[in-house]
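go over whats below:
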Amino acid sequence: MGESTGALVGGSCPLGLYARPMGKKTTRLHIFRHGQVADPWPGMIYGCLDVPLSEEGHRQALWAARSLQGVELGAVISSGLQRAETSAAHLREERGLDRRDEERLVEIDRGSWAGLTPEQVNELQPGGFQAWTTSSGLLAPPGGETVQAMADRVGPKLLELAEEHAGSTIAIVAHMWVVRIALCMGLGRPWQDTAQLRVGTGARTDFEWTASDGLRFLGADAPEGSGVEIDAG
């Protein structure tokens, strides 16, 4: 896209999607970022560590369920980490759906940086965190993975899930970098643009998929105080 779409909070109405018919070869996907994490984790690097939600994060998890109230779901899928599974459990609760975890949708692996702050990383490895943030996803923390490697596991899995559930609607609860990769796919942008996409805690992003057109971004919504914003590409 050639220009910024700006903040997208409130930019979609999922129930409105269902006023028009959906083809048997179309999948609708609602992809959530988990809620806010508990202290002391905000501001720290946690990646694929299994950290809990704060009280606000639990409220955001409840918002996720309410935001799709009345929407029939064929599956609710999460990364399996507790901060994602909390929202997924609320989404499954009134639908009688089985739990399903997908390890390929876990957050980016931060390696030996996990559990540190950016400042602590720079103390141990001067300039290391800044080098990582300006590398366009090509550098990895020691023992961790690059954004490119994450995109290589997340992108195909999202397409597999969309194809598997063709003709229905699914909800996925995952993590910031997972949602960023989905947005790049849905906007037709390269994975290198992930850092230009800001996804707040608890935010929901909406997509449609067909085999011919792939993943297409529809819009986003988020609980109060959160949001999704896309910089110019």
